Amino acid sequence: MTVTDSVRSALEQDKIESHLNPVGSFDVADHPVPTGREEIWRFSPLKRLHGLHADADLGGRTSKLSWNEPSGVSVSVVTGDEARALRGVSGLVPNTRFAARVLAEVPATVLVDVPADTEVSEPLVLDVAGLGVEETAGGHLVFRFGAHSKAVVVVNHTGSAAVAAVVEIVVGDGADVTVVSIQDWDDDAVHLAHHQALVGRDASYKHAAISFGGDVVRMDANVTYDGPGGSAELLGLYFADAGQHIEHRLFADHNAPHTRSNVVYKGALQGEGAHTVWIGNVLIRKVAEGIETYEENRNLVLTDGCRADSVPNLEIETGEIEGAGHASTTARFDDEQLFYLQARGVSEAEAQRLVVRGFFNDLIRKVGVPSIEERLTTTVEAELAKNVLKELAP
User: Fold this and answer.
1) pTM of the full predicted structure?
2) H or E segment at 276?
């Protein structure tokens, strides 16, 4: 029995059906076109998705992919039977139409392999450069990290595109893995993505979702476990401007004992019609004794006309756990912080810049990839200058 088969078998035997995550299917026909009334679609602006949620063509050439070549990493594009064998390798059974369509219809898979016991000395960077929104496309990426390997992968999205993507991540026993996805699209881009990770025994997995650009960005980031002792840290940073819709949905499925998950997402909003959505779902199954989980979402509203939806959920089927909790806040600038800085001669614009930078700074450090920390800080300040600082300028 393969790893994927064992995970599916365990989930099928467990009769608990999560109220937080719909039952999945590989059959596209089992996924009606969303109407917007479904729980998992009620926040998403369907009319702006270029039909990616429905029946848009997934065969367009909307982006160009390139990558560096760190020693010890294999990157290839596979097709045919080899590609089909990778569909669902993470234990993913699609619960959205777009994910089911990607797995059924996209002919090629980008495969990243890190062998067992390999420590990769520099980040692998995959650059996805959008070529325009005139066509729509689908993509499938698979990251396989062997037992006791250590690696960092950064997926960098720029340019303009309309794309639906499925990213599957398999973290071997005892591995230490970081996957960073940066959505720095142009203003007209549309990006639907489903990231699914399977975390092995005593493995450590960190996933960071960083969303700045795009017209609509919606990312599902899910994690399940392939044995006890696995740990998952799910981080997110987002900044929505006028008219932007940025949506992040998390699902940590504790299907093995003594596993851990920690979720921290922070976002800022500015400009008329800026809308962010964060849905944090955690399921603790009956078999998951001794687990520990915590999820946190904090939003900073910088101007009028913004909307931040934040919905943390815990579904607990056993009382034999170490701990479980969640926190969610949405607030404006802290007047006391601004007063403190201005009382010491700091201008209002500079005070607001310092507060926003401090709000994000600890999260940027948690991402733990020095090569992109400066870029993230610079991008946050550039986003802030678009609206808040411009309004305050003399």
Assistant:
1) 0.91
2) strand 275-284
